[in-house]
Amino acid sequence: MVRYNLELALRGLRRFPRSTLLAVLTVALGLASSMTTLALLHMLTADPLPGRSQHLYLAWVDTVQAKLADYPSLNGVKVSNYRRIKMADAQALLQAHRAVQQAALAGLDADVSTADGDHVQQGQSLLGTTSGFVPMFGVALRYGRSWSAAEDVARAPVAVIDVDLAQKLFGTANVVGRSIRLDQTAFRVIGVSAPFAPQPHFYGLDRWAFSGSDLENVFVPYTAALDAGLMPGDSDGCDASDKKRGLFDADPARCAWLAYWVQLDTPQQVADYRGYLDHYAEQQPALEGRTRQKAQLHGVSEWLTQQNVIPDNARMNVWLAGSFLLLCMVNVAGLLTAKFLRRSAEIGIRRALGAPRRAIFAQHVLEATVVSALGGVLALPLTLLGLWILRMQDQGFTDLARLDPVMFGGLFALALAVGVLVGVLPAWRASTVEPGLQVKSA
Amino acid sequence: MSLRMLLSILRRHSLMPTLVLLQVALACAILCNVLFLVQQQLAPMLAPSGIAGNELILIDQLASRQKPWSAAEVRRGEQVLRQVPGVRDASAAFGLPMVAGLVDMSLQGGNGVKLGVNGYLGAGLVKTLGLDLVAGRDFLPDEYRDFGMGGDGNSKWDPGAQQPIIITQALADQLFDGGQALGKVMSDPGDADGHGYRVVGIVRHLLRNQLRLASDGRADNTVLLARRIGSTSMLSFAVRVDPAMKDSVREGVAAAIQREFGDTIKAGLVARVSFYNERRAQAFKSERAALWLFAGVTLAVVIVTVVGIMGLTGFWVQKRTRQIGIRRALGARRADILRYFLVENALIVMAGVIVGMLFALLGNGLLMRHYELPQLPWIYLPFGAALMLVLGQFAVLGPALRAARVPPVVATRSV
């Protein structure tokens, strides 16, 4: 029966090839626009570190003593607070060692060169951090090792660099034991890692959120980086009001410039750590009598939501494309209704010869589904074209626009669902054709 | 044929008209919102800058290597630039449009309104930028105070006294009743113990630095402050040049900057020397991309709608061929038939537009809730409605003409 219906459906499609083509094209356009925007959104909302991110938390204690400035909000400038903490607090929290793993970190910039200065990579992004970062964030080491807590304390000038930078500087991957210079200061390479670029860049949103090109390719103890004269670029506030001073010197001792990430595996650990942070904040004599919130703990996905990391455009385009798909569906439903009712006479004869309504309905839903499936197939190249156009747009996040196999499966399922949805109304209308009337007038 | 008959036919065969109506409603909703988004993107691109764009070279990305530059070094930089052939004027400045870095501040005017504005700092900017002073005067040479970013600490932001300020006409209108701003005092609501600003001059236009905020009448929320760039570790320059010597003067300016600051600039940095107009084109690149996207969406919506209405109406006309024949046989003229289908389409489209306006407002409400988007202005609704009506009439014209050509004799045949 299905085969007979399919045969009839295909025959029907060939009958008025122009209207069939129009319907297929319309479906393809609607699907392609939806898929393009969904593929981008899917990339942007992906888990940055699968398997790890649900155990990572950003810990924050607000011990900055300057008053909060509210005037920038007047200017439409969102006061971005990346919940960074002061160095003294970071050291105290590290010392207490209450989480499974922990690390303080901050993005820095430097020119990286070989010890002899022959090969230079200018303006590289560095991560000044502590020994916990590499194991906690799962940075894959190709050669050598990461540094230890003791080396943090000793302010040892050691570095882990990524394999691409090693290739660029030394022409070889295994450069453990060699020496590099960050700006002017020599650091010893003790490990070589795989490139580490989770998307979004959740642990350093102050630097960038999404990027196909930026990544930190040097990891160093932040203590040693400070000794080397690498200064944090900005901060979430400083103790002394910075209004009367220069605008660009984030004083590492008095400004909140380190993000503090911890790993907590169980809900109990999370609750305990929250309690510990609150207790820590309560104990700060400088904070007595202050009413604003003093300590917070954010999970990765909550943090990304709170910081509004997904670009508004990406979501808005999904809405736009979705409503366009809806328009296309209504359009195709209309085209198909017209197409089906043109053969009222034929349907009437089939009904008169004993075909039940169900059969007529099934035949036409099938026909609509075939139209949509064809549209879905055609939508694939159109989606690839759309993604290519998006990548051309150069808005920072758009160069991540790719279609993965799962998305392609989704595309096809969506096409079939659209087919059934679109087909129901015209097919129902066709199945209500009265046999007698049509036979008479034909 | 009376309207009542027309409506009763529509009521009896409601599937096709409903489908057309739904299409029109959806298309209308999408188009209204897309056109609104287009306008939001376009506003900053259309805002007048007040600046002589092809006579202005901007220089930025200058940061000092070790210690900040002294005020004297900055002065000498300006002097060297002025001596380049083809240069008419040069000012070290902060916060200029299309330049990296901004100075933002807030002001409270005589009528109590508080606004966020962008401040431009630098000596002689009125002349260097080529601004059109419509009232008052430029700053006097002895009114300037030194200010730098990350400098030696000698130049403070707060000079400890009331400061002269030059504002734009748009700001004068927003902050003072009747736009009477000259000589009046403004305060900084974020700085209770500040000394305030006295308006000494008003310029016609001056585009703000934050381009994303340059819509909804905020493009000119810009002020000039009486600051001379003093000791600083960040620098940018505005250079007014003779447009006839465009290419040679750019090279001359770049060479002068290299000579003067090449040895003290931070390693890895290269000063960016380019015309205002070039930067403007670059800055609006993503807006232009978005505009193309929206244009594509609009075109696709229009095509899909027209094709849909054509297909449906064509079928519906064909189905009624016999009735048309009967009406023709009973004496209806071709023009009557044509008018009938046009009016019918107009009725359906209007109903669709009414539903579509509701959809449009709903969609806009949704966008407003989730994204920073202002309310859809009412003006877009009649505009969208008119557009849909024209599209509908255009789409129905073909089928309606075909209907008008149906000969009366068809009435006597069975279809």
Structure characterization notes:
The complex is a heterodimer of chains A (442) and B (415). Chain A is an alpha+beta fold. In chain A, 47% of the residues lie in helices and 17% in strands. Chain A is built from 14 helices and eleven strands. Chain A has helices at 2-15, 17-44, 87-96, 133-137, 149-153, 163-170, 222-227, 267-282, 300-306, 312-342, 344-352, 357-392, 405-431, 435-441, and strands at 56-61, 85-86, 101-114, 120-129, 141-144, 158-162, 179-182, 185-193, 216-221, 256-263, 295-299. In chain A, strands 3-4-9-6-8-7 form a six-stranded mixed β-barrel. The radius of gyration of chain A is 31 Å and the shape is elongated. Chain A starts with a helix and ends with a helix. Mean pLDDT of chain A is 84; it is low at 242-248. By secondary structure, chain B is of the alpha+beta class. Chain B folds into two domains: 3-45 and 286-412, no CATH class; 66-264, no CATH class. In chain B, 47% of the residues lie in helices and 17% in strands. Chain B is built from eleven helices and 13 strands. In chain B, strands 1, 2, 3, 4, 5, 7, 8, 9, 10, 12 and 13 form an eleven-stranded mixed beta sheet that branches. In chain B, strands 6-11 form a two-stranded parallel sheet. In chain B, a hairpin with a 5-residue loop joins strand 3 and strand 4. The radius of gyration of chain B is 31 Å and the shape is elongated. The chains are: A alpha+beta (442), B alpha+beta (415). At the A-B interface, helix 2 and helix 10 of A face helix 2, strand 3, strand 4, helix 8 and helix 10 of B.
Q: How many domains of chain A, as an integer? A: 2
Structural class, judged by helices and strands of chain B?
alpha+beta
Global mean pLDDT of chain A? 84
Rg calc of chain A: 31 Å
Biggest sheet character of chain B: 11 strands, mixed
Largest sheet descriptor of chain A: 6 strands, mixed, barrel
CA-to-CA gap between the ends of chain B? 23 Å
The gross shape of chain B turns out to be elongated
* Oligomer class: heterodimer
Mean pLDDT of chain B: 86
Helical residue percent band of chain B? 40-55%
What is the general shape of chain A? elongated
**Largest contact between chains:** A-B, 51 and 68 residues
Order of helices and strands of chain A: HHEEHEEHEHEHEEEHEHEHHHHHH
DSSP summary, beta strand count of chain A: 11
